[in-house]
Amino acid sequence: MAIVQQKAQCVLWFAEFESVVTVQHNFRWQYPRQRIPEQRAICCFHETGPVQKNQSPGRPRTSEEKVELLRLSCVRSPKNLELGIPKTTMQNVLHKRLRLYAYKIQLRHEIKSENRPNACNQSIPGMLNVHLIPHSHDDVGYRKTVDQYYYGVVTKNTPKGGVQYIIDTVTQELAKDPKKRFVQVETEFLWKWWQEENDEMRQLYRQLVDAGQIEIIGGGVVMNDEADTHYQTTIDQFSLGFRYSASPLLDEMLGECGRPRIGWQIDPFGHSKETASIMAQMGFDALFFARLDYEDKQNRIESKTMEMVWQANKNLGLSSDLFTSVLYNHYSFPTGFCNDISCSDDPFIDDKNSPDYNVDEKVTKFLDFIDDVAAAYSTDNILITMGQDFTYQSAHMNYKNMDKLIKYVNLLQKNNSNINVFYSTPSCYVKAIHDANQTWTTKSDDFFPYGNDPHSYWTGYFTSRPTNKRYERIGNNFLQVCKQLSVLSRVSDKSLLKKLSYLGNAMAILQHHDAITGTDTQDVADDYMRMLSVGIDKCEDIPTTAYNKMLSQESSETKTNLTMRSCLLLNISQCDISESSSEFLVTIYNPLARPTSHYVRLPVNGNNYVVTDYNGAQVPSQMIPVPQSVLDIPYRKSVATQELVFRAADIPPLGLQSYKVSLSENNSQGGSVTSNNHTISNGDVTVELDADLGTVKLISMNGIDLPLTQSIMYYNAFHGNDAEAANISSGAYIFRPTSEGVQKINDKVNVTVYKGNLIEEIHQVFNEWVSQVIRVYKQEKHIEFDWMVGPIPVDDGTGKEVISRFTTKLDSKGIFYTDANGREMQKRQRNYRPTWTWNISEPVAGNYYPTTTRILIKDEAKGLQFAILNDRSQGGSSLQDGEIELMVHRRVLKIQHYNEALNETAYGAGVIARGRHIVMVGNSSAQERLLVQRTLLAPWVFLTPGSGNPVQVKGLTNSLPENVHLLTLEPWEKGSILIRVEHIMENGEDPVMSQNITVDLKEILAPLAVKSFYETTIDGKMALQSMERLEWRTADNSRPHIHHNINNFSISLSPMQIRTFIVAVNHIAPSPTTAPSSGCSNIIRDNCLVLISLYISLKFNFAV
């Protein structure tokens, strides 16, 4: 006789699959010792019908607000919500509006956690429990493109093999045996597969996820890099991946077994605190990774500290803490146990009559390996990865041999062996070690740089493929512009939103640890850039549509049909519209939630132009020569020799502001004159050159005179045979300079100085492949160093790694700071590691760290700091006190494991890279952070040929405070919108701006007519109140909890806090998503049981 819990489970299955056969099949899996219910019994269990009724006709009498309030109470705790709704109204809403059958809800809630199917194969107390984790590491591009990897295309670099076959065969194999497990990581491939499969295969996959046989971990579109990525793009790629894995794949009304709870960063080349912090804020219980410095790993093995609680952000307290486990054997099969079609290890031969019988030998080898692993960890549970790159294309081979491994190892328990081996998942392993309830060590720094031997420091990829890194940064800038304009203009056209999704997906793919890093092959790198280019081109239609709609919303009499286009080749001073039009409109969009000003620079063919603003007033402008080095670029298709420069002042928050530019006969605007004076200044900022050398010798800023020298130099790349550590070469991953040190390009620099009414510039030419422009703008308090490097010469057979070095007399005492993915500043100390004694073998490369947006040094005695802001991710260091260097470009010649060298070419020559460093001097971290925001989310310039009237359109009527940033504003699901707001300061960085602050979302977002909202985890896919994480014991009990205060529409923000909300506008109700239950099968959280019980008592007149 089936008990009530089993009956309820049958109801759940029948409601989901509408198939008696499937219910019986599931029942056999979950309750193997119970008699399988007959068809008549299953239908009897289900006789009251589905939980949700069909829509009843008739006009509703209860307000939408009350319905929404009751519905929200089913995902929020009633303890925190005073409903104030009469019982009769509640009955009406539950029965007629929400269409819930009370009996079925009650039945579902009677399935207690102890009665739900146990997704974990059971460990045995008192034994060493060995958790086998079947997995495949599937790079979303590396030596083959994304599509080539998915479909299994044979290329010059890789054999045949496709991810589609992996998912196919794993699904089929797991369906045969409920004990088998597999973990799926990258949702880009899963989503491709899902779109192609039939309903039967989808249903089977969903069933395996619900049963815990397939666990989705990581869950991002890709397994993101952690050094070169910005935190905004990291959050976005996880958010998009979660929408793939939780929404389309699994019906949310049946639970969210597809929601990841574990981080799985097994291949990135070093690990950042910010990535761990983001994972913690998504509700993850743990993180697993493989790569850490070889000395650090050995130290942790010896001290049994391979597992720890990572205190990932000192400002966010416990909310950013994440249990972290380092994998013992990289992420590979144990040696000798790769029974995959891609491997050559012997299978289990268990016929004792065979001369090749090898069971005893293989079991002994496995047990020896287990002994080594167990010695490195502190509980009686260990995790063994059973996978490698693109394995399980014929999953039966893998599982058949793992079945034998489990069988023969566990048979030894009869001989008093204490080893228990079984299929498992990372979540089951985490639960097992959490149940050990031990006290864990902590870590508060990061895992950079990564060295895998004394001469292999993976710090070259911080800079590799610098032009791609810059293009990715531009792509994110434009993606945020398109997201915001889609919301502000209420874009609902599905074709436009599809174009927005394409760019979002392209940007997500670029966060892959072989994409943004530049560690891919040239063909794959080109394909990444193709995807980004197509995405940007598709999204160009959104700003045009938004602009015309927003103008129409401003005034019903204003009807426009303007077409706006971006000029993406301004880095080489090329733009068809500005060069070919005698009259055109320049429209600038400000993606920041506060007013900003921006200098517009456009290549033109005329000599005199008039710029007019939206008030009809003439705007000061200046003509400035295009640097000769830019004019000499062979593939530049432009005859423009000058740029028109003007200042777009006070662009409103999330607003559009346009200007009319007209060719003029009169020389009424400012030109640029050459000067023999080797000093440029705007009154607040001054740069002084050494008149003999042509290099910088002094800068003045904020009333501070700072002696400074700056030069562009290079390291010769070490070229070895890679046969042993001492002969490891510089390559796409590894930076290894020769022992001769840094090389000067030229002692003297050719200089031309230009001065005008808006801007003063120094044009420097170091040699035929290195040049630079140093500039100061009026009303700005920083200096720009606009560098251009390439083609790097390699005719001498030696690769080169080019740096820009800034040298001051500040006493930095060996300390410098780099940012963690654009967020928290990290203290670095030259020749030092916080958690072990570093044996220095590579003093240059081993002191390089990832620099996403900012690097700085301090002179504590003088109260000064010297900061450099960069426009893309780069490697940076301070190798001497008072000094900062950033690597800007690299070209190395050693052909390495994927049969290519990092020897980028374009148009028959080495790639030319152009970029910008912004220099600031003073003691204001706040001003640096504000300028970082202006650089990362720069105003976007659109051009429209022909005549037109300039306008100003305000996106927001109120600005956010300076220390609050609108990180995300994007269209979300079911017509709602997602917003993220963040406090940009750290504790103690600024006496004013580092304070807690409260903002009113309804007031700030007034133009959007906000009706209601609820808070979610940082990814936007789970109501924050539903998030439950495992708590871990540490010796440090001082970590605070960060509060999430809400008072009506007012929210509080503490330093470094990011808060995410789903917002309903114009009567569109947001739909909170609850956390996955322990069985992933109940449709409504237990919080709703109070309401349901009340309903039952009213309806049937009996107490529940």
UniProtKB/TrEMBL annotation:
Pfam families reported in the protein's UniProt record: Alpha-mann_mid, Glyco_hydro38C2, Glyco_hydro_38C, Glyco_hydro_38N, Laman-like_dom
Presence of keyword Amino-acid biosynthesis: no
Cofactor descriptive note: Binds 1 zinc ion per subunit.
Swiss-Prot/TrEMBL cofactor(s): Zn(2+)
CDD domains: GH38N_AMII_LAM_like
UniProt enzyme class: hydrolase
Enzyme Commission code: 3.2.1.-
Assigned keywords, A-Z: Disulfide bond, Glycoprotein, Glycosidase, Hydrolase, Metal-binding, Signal, Zinc
Reactions catalysed according to its record: Hydrolysis of terminal, non-reducing alpha-D-mannose residues in alpha-D-mannosides
Keyword Cell wall biogenesis/degradation among record annotations: no
Leader sequence residues: none
UniProt domain Glycoside hydrolase family 38 central: residue ranges: 456-532
Family: Belongs to the glycosyl hydrolase 38 family.
Protein name: Alpha-mannosidase
Source organism: Dryococelus australis
